[in-house]
Task: structure prediction
Amino acid sequence: MKKILLFCIMLLAINASDAQNFWKRKANGPGRFGAVSFVIGTKAYVGTGDDSYIYDPLKKDFWEYNPAGPNCGGTWTQLVDFRGTKRREAVAFSIGNKGYVGTGDDGTLTNDFYEYDPIANDWDTITPFPGTARQGAVAFTINGKGYVGTGVDAGGSTTNFYEYNPTLGTGGTWTPKTNFGGGNRAWASAFVINNKGYVGTGGGPSSLTKDFWEYDPILDTFIQKADFGGSARLGTSSFSINGKGYIGVGEADGGAYMKDFWEYDPNTNAWTQRPNYESAQGGNDGVGFSVGSKGYFGEGRYGNGEFWEYSPPIATSYVAPDSWAQKASLGTFAGSDRWDAIAFTIGDKGYVGTGSDRKDFWQYNPANNTWTQKMNFGNDTVGGRYGCVGFSIGNKGYVGLGRGPGGDYGYMNDFWEYDTSANLWTQKAYFLAAVVMKPLALA
Result:
């Protein structure tokens, strides 16, 4: 039983990505709600918004966030101010190595647009958004073009969408596209997976919503997908990582600030709940973006500048923190169960063998939850045994001691090294102390 428990502990270590806290606190951002964000390369850019804690709440400062900065929480660097007026609830997207920011509320609704060059650390004015001036719209990028739509104008929530092409004309060109499939909408959420845009949640003309839609830029069509997995809400944050989309937080009915967080898989058209956003205040009207394989949520109303990093699960199935998930059973490992086996870990694989007078050896891969038989213990030159000791050092495993089959061989003191790359065993120096059974090993 002790040997089985030891292996379970090692499997938990191998699958740390399944049992970790997926959210990790990072360095605080500038602190505001209704800000915008976009990503260029390995850095994110956050700016504008509303700081309701000071006399002049609207902002136009802009900041660069480097997740790989010298501090473990990442590094924030202040940049040149946004060229437009101070504002909140604008939209932003990036195309290539440029960022784009426009629309929003500066005391009146706006439709101006600007391009940011991170190399020059400067802004240029570009062609204004051709739709009505608005706030609370969504924006995303597909194949070198930006898409902006929905939001609130002087007449209420809107449904129209426009495509921006930076390569056409002076300052770029906007082209009307098909209206959003879910009808009038504001403060919705959007992300991109595999050159498709996904838009959902938000406030409709008379109620909060949770419907979800896929936009195909080639066909210029919206197709309804499975509703968002959480409750209806507005002001959510979102991003996409590795072919999955993520939406969470936001404001639900009754003004409740939410913390739940959901993953969307376009292959199955299904939502899966992931660990809650860990900010004490929840979140509403914050920013969300991804850099590489990590996602980031932050800012928002009463968020006090908190910023958090999300690491998605790596293994084939999600395991909630402080819980167990069944893996391929011992029935598929060597065809039967056993007792007094040994186990050790090398890299991201587990190794189990011997026990119950056996000498077969097996490798466990948690990435695909499979067992693979390896060279028998001792290169098949020694008999089976039980009660051995096993440990690893670097990329080698070590097994020895124990007792031979049925006790006929007595207590053993031979020791063997396993090379994973060669899949071979090499006998090492005999254990010098008295021969023992059920010893303890640490590595």
The CA atoms of residues 32 and 55 lie 13 Å apart. The longest strand covers residues 58-66. DSSP finds two helices and 36 strands in the chain. The radius of gyration is 28 Å.
